[in-house]
What does this fold into?
Amino acid sequence: MEITFWGTRGSIPSPGSHTLEFGGNTTCVEVLLDSGRRVVIDGGTGFRLLGQKLEKLGGPCQFHFLLTHGHWDHLLGIPFFDPIYAPDTEILVDGWPPAFQAMTRVFDSHMGDGFFPVAFDHLKARIDYINRLAQGYLEVDGVRIDSIRLNHPQGGLGFRFREGRHSMVFLTDNELGAIHGNRMSEFIEFVQGCDLLIHDAQYRPEDFPERRGWGHSSFDEVLALATQAGVRNLILTHHDPSRSDVEVQEIVEEARQMASAQGGPQFIDAAREGTCYSLT
Ligand SMILES: [Zn+2]
Ligand SMILES: [Zn+2]
It folds into this structure.
């Protein structure tokens, strides 16, 4: 599978000269399976850029769309995803069940003048909610996708993809040290031995305790998870909107130093908008 980051930022888009390297768009990740089928995770503002690419590719646009949860930074790109206005587009939605309703509310929220975005029922694309993950697992072209409940206000789901010998885990908006919810041991079991872990690292350790309960992790907690689960490759994402490129790079350097001292992942980086990783 190939994993491409179209949005890497948390909470709100943060364009500017200080975010050029890691990106200012909010969460959207494209997973291209070996079969050629696409699975897209979340519709943050990066989703608009993916729509432009898919239109250039031509042909009918068909993909699975997994929603981690219903917060706006994970949905705001959907009205600007051009293929959603094309009648030959087919989108199969799964993920955190309340997030599908949240997705429709992006169109039917009656914000603004009531005419834009258009009503959800007026979209030309065929959009079906398949709701498999809440009842077990989802299989797409022989790739098994499992889910785990996130520690995040109002809940959410993270995903593990298994394709042949390879596996990738995507956990964003997840507070590993939360007082309630899943414990670290449950996340270790879910992540165990995956080739690539992509995890929310919005905070630094010193951001706690003030931000305890906000539903995000600090990079040292993520490193502890990756190390204990035997993960080889770690990518930190959902960068804080106030964090500059220089500050994100500092987090990466600190995580790498900690990993080399503790026997952690061999490869650590921060998610960069437009970057593609291949698991083959
Ligand atoms: Zn978020
Ligand atoms: Zn959130």
In short: Residues 69 and 156 are 5 Å apart (CA to CA). Helices lie at 47-57, 97-108, 184-191, 219-228, 245-262. The chain has a mean pLDDT of 96. The longest strand covers residues 143-149.
